[in-house]
From TrEMBL:
Source organism per UniProt: Kitasatospora cineracea
Alphabetical list of PANTHER family matching this protein: EXPORT PROTEIN, MAJOR FACILITATOR SUPERFAMILY MULTIDRUG TRANSPORTER MFSC
Protein name as it appears in the record: DHA2 family integral membrane protein (MFS transporter)
Polar residues: bias regions: 528-538
Region feature (Disordered): 517-538
Length: 538
């Protein structure tokens, strides 16, 4: 029997916005697609960019890592500020500005004449992306009622899978028919279309009581992340982490990040409100996000070289072989809420992490002659696991914060995802480089001394030197050394994701549903009255 005092939740979303909410979501997904699409395309193009001019830019292993990390570090370092600016001045306008900058960076990247220019222009793209990503999720939280937010976030997360699916195929087609810069130029028309749709459909929203900006905190976070990852990459290049050029920047990065945390704890207007981490569910969800992307991005980096350099597949074929991982995310991510409703966040996320672990363990047993269908199965298993991790933890993160702080919450979610991915590329890339270099030391005696260091840097460098100097005896040892390095990195990644599964089991809730799900708490006074919520304009 229904209590006579029970009241139906009052809608917090204007009717005009509510009616077009799914069209708005589609427009936000398009903005998300272009940002994620870029990195998935770049993964396919890395082998071509590493090829000497005029085909590519002759990028080294470190150049390729920095082409990814320059984007990610600027993105992650500015997400706090971008989220706060969106909450303060309006998420629609930060979204539009971010898309404009991202489009400009894409155009400049397509015209880059050297690896250094490409790295710099990728940083411009990261600047634009920093304003796009938090705005999309924050707007979703403000145009959907609580009971629809898990479904909308599932679609938002599934869009990542769609971008991963489209990116490699698109990149492969472009690489086979055009020059490498076309993988960036393709972003421009998508940005133009997205800008038009966003200007027409997306409503503005903002925090009625925004805090002040925190330039000191933002600066410390940027310095810390850049220095830390630079040191790790340098150590991998030198195969010696005790070298001063590796450990000094690493130490500077750690000290800067410690200073960042201490400063944020005592400043009156922090970019990152560290008190949010007192919420066990919030902290665990953030940790799971960072862990899964740490492992996944590192393996994604070496997967391209295994498919193309070891197995001999073209860029287009490499893209097709990545489809299973993407399709699994696209299919299962929007439906993850149904699994959460039945089994709870804890079991769903831990099970997803264990599926990802199984995929990594499968990589640890691949050889140069393994049936290619094994790679397809592994990709599908890992994609299914990801689809049951990211939507639930994203809902948990956003549901743990006040609605008016949606921009800052979204920025924090994406920061840990991007920082985790960047650290994965740096740490696992350095491990891959070190193990590979050690495996090749005994096979480089016939290589001229002036190119010996370059020849041992990566499998692509070794194969390039072998072809140029007519040294076919280097090919098989290079493939063997790479496969061994891949096995080591896969094993480490599996161990990391097991830790993530343990974290989920220990700290995430059981069948306490996310906002809108069965058992979710009823809207509080602020939700019913609308006071304290973000303001929205039609």
């Amino acid at each position: 029997m229904t209590s006579p005092t029970a009241a139906a939740p009052v809608s917090r979303v204007p009717e005009a916005v509510h009616r077009r909410r799914w069209w708005i979501l589609g427009t936000l997904v398009l903005a998300l697609l272009v940002v994620v699409l870029d990195n998935s395309i770049l993964n396919v193009a890395m082998k071509t960019i590493a090829t000497p001019a005029p085909v590519g830019l002759g990028a080294s292993q470190s150049d390729l890592e920095w082409a990814i990390n320059s984007y990610t570090l600027v993105f992650a370092g500015l997400l706090f500020t971008a989220g706060l600016l969106g909450d303060r001045f309006g998420r629609k306008w930060t979204l539009l500005a971010g898309m404009l900058v991202f489009g400009l960076g894409s155009l400049l990247s397509a015209l880059a004449a050297s690896p250094g220019e490409l790295i710099g222009y990728r940083a411009v793209m990261g600047l634009g992306g920093a304003f796009v990503m938090p705005a999309t999720l924050a707007i979703i939280m403000n145009v959907f009622e609580r009971h629809e937010q898990p479904k909308a976030i599932g679609i938002w997360a599934g869009a990542v899978g769609l971008a991963i699916a489209i990116g490699p195929i698109t990149g492969g087609l472009l690489i086979e028919h055009f020059w490498w810069g076309s993988v960036f130029l393709v972003n421009v028309p998508i940005v133009v279309v997205a800008l038009g749709l966003m200007g027409w459909l997306v409503p503005d929203s903002k925090d009625p009581n925004p805090g002040k900006l925190d330039p000191v905190g933002v600066l410390l976070s940027i310095v810390g992340l850049v220095a830390l990852i630079y040191g790790i990459i340098k150590g991998g290049e030198l195969a010696d982490f005790t070298d001063p050029s590796a450990w000094v920047p690493t130490l500077v990065g750690v000290l800067a990040l410690v200073a960042f945390v201490l400063f944020e704890k005592h400043t009156r207007h922090p970019a990152l409100d560290v008190t949010w981490f007192r919420n066990k569910v919030f902290s665990a969800s953030i940790g799971v996000v960072g862990i899964v992307f740490f492992a996944l991005m590192g393996v994604s980096f070496f997967g391209v070289f295994y498919i193309q350099s070891v197995r001999g597949y073209s860029a287009l074929e490499a893209g097709e072989l990545m489809l299973p991982l993407a399709v699994a995310q696209l299919v299962f991510a929007p439906r993850a809420r149904l699994v959460v409703d039945r089994f709870g966040i804890r079991a769903t996320c831990a099970g997803g992490m264990l599926l990802v672990t199984a995929g990594f363990l499968g990589y640890a047993f691949l050889t140069a002659t393994s049936p290619i269908w094994l790679l397809i199965v592994l990709g599908f298993v890992m994609g299914t696991g990801m689809a049951h991790v990211m939507p639930p933890v994203t809902v948990a993160i956003m549901g743990a914060l006040p609605r008016e702080k949606a921009g800052a919450g979204s920025a924090l979610n994406n920061t840990f995802r991007q920082v985790g991915g960047s650290l994965g590329i740096a740490v696992l890339g350095a491990l891959l480089s070190t193990v590979y270099r050690n495996g090749m030391d005994d096979h480089l005696a016939t290589v001229p001394e002036q190119v010996r260091d370059r020849a041992g840097e990566s499998i692509e460098s070794t194969l390039g030197v072998a072809e140029k100097l007519h040294l076919p005896a280097l090919v098989d040892p290079a493939k063997d050394a790479f496969i061994h390095a891949m096995h080591v990195v896969s094993g480490v990644s599996a161990g990391v994701t097991v830790l993530g599964a343990v974290l989920a089991l220990l700290l995430l809730p059981g069948k306490v549903a996310a906002p809108g799900g069965p058992g979710a708490p009823a809207p509080g006074p602020q939700d019913r009255s609308g006071s304290g919520a973000s303001t929205a304009k039609v």
